[in-house]
């Protein structure tokens, strides 16, 4: 979500962008920053070299990963195998947050989602 917001992705609906611009409790996980940095390092993502730093500095609140998040992520059903997405799901479950996503597999978990 933050990646689409930062890059002004035209497929991000205006109402979602406005909500992200004005909602005070939007969080970004270090898992997102790590995934972006990893994808850049292996050539799967080439948008600005400082993209991980831009995400970090986006103004969204940081939701650090803790032991409870790790335990919940490890115990999730194997509907989705992406470890980054599994961590985001676990964080959303533990913290009772809504996960903004385009991934059709994520709503199969017991987590509130906002589809974009």
Automatic annotation (TrEMBL):
Pfam families: PIN. Residues 3-110 form the PIN domain. SUPFAM superfamilies: PIN domain-like. Keywords: Hydrolase, Magnesium, Metal-binding, Nuclease. InterPro entries: PIN-like_dom_sf, PIN_dom, PIN_Sll0205, TA_system_RNase. GO terms for molecular function: hydrolase activity; metal ion binding; nuclease activity. This is Twitching motility protein PilT. It comes from Actinoplanes nipponensis.
């Amino acid at each position: 979500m933050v990646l689409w917001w930062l890059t002004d992705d035209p497929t991000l609906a205006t109402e979602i962008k406005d909500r992200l611009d004005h909602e005070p409790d939007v969080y970004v996980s270090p898992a997102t920053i790590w995934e972006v940095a990893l994808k850049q390092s292996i050539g799967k993502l080439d948008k600005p070299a400082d993209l991980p730093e831009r995400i970090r500095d986006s103004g969204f609140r940081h939701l650090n990963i803790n032991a409870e998040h790790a335990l919940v992520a490890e115990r999730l059903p194997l509907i989705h195998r992406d470890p980054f997405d599994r961590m985001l799901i676990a964080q959303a479950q533990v913290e009772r947050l809504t996960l903004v996503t385009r991934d059709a597999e994520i709503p199969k978990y017991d987590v509130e989602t906002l589809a974009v």
